[in-house]
Design a protein that fits this description.
Elements lengths: L4 H6 L2 H7 L8 H7 L8 H13 L3 H9 L7 H4 L5 H9 L7 H18 L17 H11 L4 H24 L4 H13 L20 H17 L3 E4 L5 E5 L10 E7 L13 H15 L7 E7 L12 H6 L18 H7 L17 E9 L4 H5 L3 E7 L1 E10 L3 E2 L11 H19 L3 E3 L3 E2 L7 E2 L2 E10 L2 H21 L3 E10 L2 E2 L2 H13 L6 E4 L4 H5 L5 E6 L16 H21 L3
Parallel strand pairs: 3-4, 3-5, 5-16, 6-15
Antiparallel strand pairs: 1-2, 2-4, 6-14, 6-16, 7-12, 7-13, 8-11, 9-12, 10-12
């Protein structure tokens, strides 16, 4: 019989400790500390309390916890002396069925890993879906993590231990993240479609209006119909739009708009954008199954283009909804010489209907978006969700520093006019200046010495600047200081430079009312409310121009990496996102006149 939270909250300390035995390998002190926080409001609350006990423990205790775990496919497995929990996990991952070659490879990795870090390699082998990782993925992860910095790897081992504990708690409480699994499965199935040249390599790339892109639109539209949406269409720019009508006789009949994009970067991840389509789809499906209508409608949109990969037309899908489709884009050509107009005609889209896509903001309550974080913050804090306070505003420049090319051997160090060193000095200043704000960021992502040679002092250096901050005044102050420092560096080093602004985007602060709805939803789940800005741009920043918006971030695995095949999140965190979205719908239902 499964354990319940009510039982755990009412149990004596000794009973509760016994019930949680085995969640963390041979480390009862973790449960003992966490139980001091009873009563737990949810299983997520319990998970967080356990993780925080580890997070606040001395490093010696953390290392002891890591070392309490067995090696993967190691001596303990061979000797059949693993704990019942570890035996179950390693068996589900098929480690007991390793070929001799795989077993030898793992033993070599175990030895190399222990020699480098001094503790065993820890991996939640049941994986983000809980069903077990393929052996080849386990071995590839093992090899990749050997290159990590020791401090980072220690933290990564602990994060994997928390995931192991989360899965073990699911087993103890018979808590299956059913909707999280469904969202996971939708994304895995959608990732089967990829553009030529990438699909053959097992890489995910879906760019605007390719065959893979159109297949994704078709599949999303079919799933929307299966979920019970009343209207489903692919619109004039390729957005997939599903509408779930409000209750009959609703006084206002307005719609809540939500969604995200389904295109990807080249060799990208499965969750960027797509998570924000499938989370609300799961919510609508549950409403439909229950035969329930709300006082407002729900419009879920899979935006056709956000990444700007095939054509230079970033946010094309969401921009069309606010009347920002630029007809000049139609004449752009892709790498194969195909114009956007030709691609749209080939896809059967009606270009003349694009102006009709513009939405009347008065017909909407607002826009909300769920998105994978695409960064390390939530992952490092062991938090599943983050409430976005603002989408950063940004400004970009393309520049060139011009000094004097000279002989690398004969030019004394104090006589040089080295353009690359001048830009490097600017990069170091940007690093220090942005850090002063706490949440500003600055990057020189392009740095090129044209015609450079190993024995020539660089006379020219081309560079880019990307400066972002949560609000426009903060962004502008950062840009002003960086440009002033650029001028000082050039003057001091006897150089000149050129600089051209290439992009400026306003910040999109979250609507206070919508931000508070997300906060209430997260708090209701029993996990801490964590507020954070978004450093990346999102479709929400386009809708922000005509209606209130707010976003919810979901923790990513592998240090939160995104735009990368390693991008991932768990079925449990996806379940929490669905639950949070459902709670927001409940709040709106209570606020909206019937």
């Amino acid at each position: 019989m499964a354990l319940t939270l009510d039982q755990l909250n009412a149990a004596t300390p000794a009973e509760a400790l016994q019930w949680l035995d085995g969640v963390y390998e041979h480390s009862p002190w973790i449960a003992e500390q966490a139980l001091a926080q009873r009563p737990f409001r949810s299983l997520a609350h319990l998970r967080h309390a356990l993780a925080q006990a580890v997070r606040t423990a001395p490093q010696d205790a953390q290392l002891a916890l890591i070392r309490a775990h067995p090696e993967l496919a190691g001596k303990a497995m061979v000797a059949n002396s693993l704990t019942a929990e570890s035996t179950n996990e390693q068996s589900k991952a098929g480690l007991a069925q390793c070929t001799p070659e795989e077993f030898a490879r793992i033993q070599k990795l175990n030895a190399d890993y222990n020699a480098r870090f001094g503790f065993p390699f820890i991996l939640a082998v049941r994986g983000p879906r809980g069903a077990g990782l393929p052996r080849q993925e386990i071995i590839a992860t093992f090899a990749r993590r050997l290159d990590n910095h020791p401090d980072f790897e220690r933290a990564e081992a602990l994060r994997n231990i928390h995931r192991i504990a989360e899965i073990r708690l699911n087993d103890k409480f018979d808590a299956e993240p059913v909707l999280g699994n469904d969202v996971w499965d939708w994304q895995e199935n959608l990732a089967q479609h990829s553009d030529p040249g990438f699909a053959e390599k097992g890489q995910l790339t879906v760019t605007y209006l390719t065959d893979a892109h159109r297949a994704c639109a078709q599949r999303i539209s079919h799933w929307m119909r299966d979920c019970g949406f009343d209207e489903v269409e692919v619109d004039a720019v390729g957005n997939v739009v599903g509408r779930y009508h409000p209750a009959a006789g609703a006084a206002q009949g307005k719609y809540l708009m939500t969604g995200s994009h389904y295109d990807t970067v080249r060799n990208g991840g499965k969750y960027d954008g797509r998570l924000g389509i499938f989370v609300p789809m799961a919510c609508v499906r549950e409403l439909h199954r229950a035969g329930k209508r709300l006082p407002f409608g729900i419009e879920v949109i899979g935006f056709a283009e956000e990444e700007g990969q095939r054509y230079k037309a970033t946010f094309l899908g969401s921009g069309a909804l606010i009347g920002h489709f630029n007809n000049a884009w139609l004449d752009q050509k892709d790498a194969d010489g195909v114009t956007m107009r030709e691609a749209m005609q080939h896809a059967g889209l009606c270009i003349d209907d694009i102006p009709k896509l513009q939405r009347d903001a008065a017909q909407y309550l607002g826009f909300i978006e769920v998105h994978i974080e695409q960064g390390p913050v939530l992952n490092e804090l062991d938090l599943p969700l983050g409430v976005v306070t603002s989408i950063n505003g940004g400004v970009r420049y393309i520049g060139e520093m011009i000094g004097m090319a000279s002989h690398a051997g004969t030019t004394p160090m104090d006589r040089r006019r080295d353009a690359a060193v001048a830009v490097a000095e600017l990069a170091l200043y940007i690093e220090q200046r942005a850090a002063k704000d706490g949440d500003s960021v600055g990057t020189i992502g392009l740095l090129n010495v044209p015609g450079g040679s190993i024995n020539v002092v660089p006379g020219r250096c081309q560079f880019s600047l990307d400066l972002r901050a949560p609000n426009d005044p903060q962004r502008d102050a950062l840009a002003r200081d960086v440009l002033d420092e650029l001028a000082r560096i050039a003057a001091r080093r006897g150089m000149r430079y050129t600089l051209e602004e290439s992009m400026r985007a306003a910040a999109a602060p979250s609507s206070p009312a919508w931000l508070h709805r997300w906060e209430r939803a997260v708090d209701a789940l029993g996990v801490p409310v964590f507020r954070m800005p978004s450093g990346a741009g999102h479709d929400a920043m386009k809708l922000h121009e005509i209606m209130p918006q707010a976003m919810l971030f979901v923790r990513g695995l592998n240090a939160g990496i995104s735009h990368n095949p390693l991008e991932s999140t768990t079925n449990n965190d996806m379940q929490l996102a669905v639950d949070a979205f459902t709670h927001v719908l409940q709040q709106l239902s209570e606020e909206t006149p019937a």
